[in-house]
## 1
Amino acid sequence: MPHDHDHGDHDNHLDPMDARVRALETILVQKGLIDPAAVDAIIDTYANKVGPRNGAQVVARAWTDPEFAAWLARDATAAIADMGFTGRQGEHMQAVFNTPDQHNVIVCTLCSCYPWSVLGLPPVWYKSPAYRARVVIEPRAVLAEFGLTLPVSTRIRVWDSTAELRYLVVPMRPEGTEGMDLTALADLVTREAMVGTGLPRLPA
């Protein structure tokens, strides 16, 4: 599966929508209407700081607080909002919990619905037609391409996000994390783990 590309990619490798966005950005920069550095800073904030960090805090709290985990399972929208994480495409949320018997994966087969306020900007691969089509048909093979090989006994369930409902995967807490505080636990939670294409990092 294709993964994130940096700004060094050539425009002819972009899909039509990304190419149009790149062309529009170029025109706006040339006219002096936007500062490319400011745009990059905003993108970096949503892609790597605000979004994924928010979701990681939600997961870490669910790992350590059974009452919060139960609330998250029952009403993820309210539980997440209680932590102050609301906003674009995060209005209607459902949390799905990984177990030894079931691994959850998120996709949006129609477009790229994604909870920005919890996970940040959607990665390139999440929006790609290949991921959106194949993960529904052959999820185990797609996960293997991400480097995630699950036991044959583990069922894989694919959840299809829509404009009305978006999902957050709560991965299983790694072994050896007893006694770690919320900040340290959140540092183990990756964006991929919250989409279902990866697992949390192991403690050092």
## 2
Amino acid sequence: MKNRLFFTFLFCLGSILADEAPPQTSSKTPPPPCPFQSCTPFIPKSREVMVELFGECLFLQPNGSSLYYAVEAFPLDTSLDIPAVSPHWQVFEVTPNYSPAFNVGARVHFSDMDTSISANWERLFSSKKTSHTTQGVDEQMIGPIFDIGPGAHNFPEAKTTARFHFDQANLNFGQRFSAFSRFYPNFSAGGTF
């Protein structure tokens, strides 16, 4: 502990002697000696404005909860002991592939006010086509989920296209505060379109 205080004292003394400020003619009292915990003189904040541009190349797979496009009904297997009204079908769903997307934006930081403003734009366009054809067996049919079963229209083929168009723009405002030593909370607010 004594070594630490001794080296801190030497560091402060060296800092004061290195400045070699010209003698002041005012009648004000000189500043107190450098404390042991912080020997760095106060430096006013600069009025810098920092601009940061950024971009990301993304590879995303869109998804959803309603991507079912057809149901294929099979003839009832009479060798099984099940009720005649039991459903015997397979549901088909379109699964989109991974698609390229991007996210670009800018951030402006005002250092003298500890304020930042950022904006970004994210975009994804994706499309997937798929189809299914029945095997042509008697009583085998395909159709939409809402129109399948006895009395429904009999379609031999089902086709679908799933398209995802996603655009999102964000604008955020951030303000940093100096609550106390080594604690700088940053509050932000923004909007999304």
